[in-house]
Amino acid sequence: MEYDKDKVDEMTLALLYLVIHGREGEERAWKGFDWETMNRLHEKGLISDPRSRAKSVALTTEAAQRSELLFNKYFCASA
Question: What is the pTM of this model?
Fold first, then answer.
């Protein structure tokens, strides 16, 4: 099946916001998403290597900020 991988990456980044933990500048997220998608996010420089033994990945500052913005854009109820 053909699909827009950039859109999937964007939605995955938005959903990572739900599982972010840690302090500002040290955000991590559980890596329970599709491996190919997580690898693409790593290749784009947004997260640490998902192939590590850790159960979570580190998000760059840019990725953490984008994650929150995308989550709000797609999933927050209108006021």
Answer: 0.88
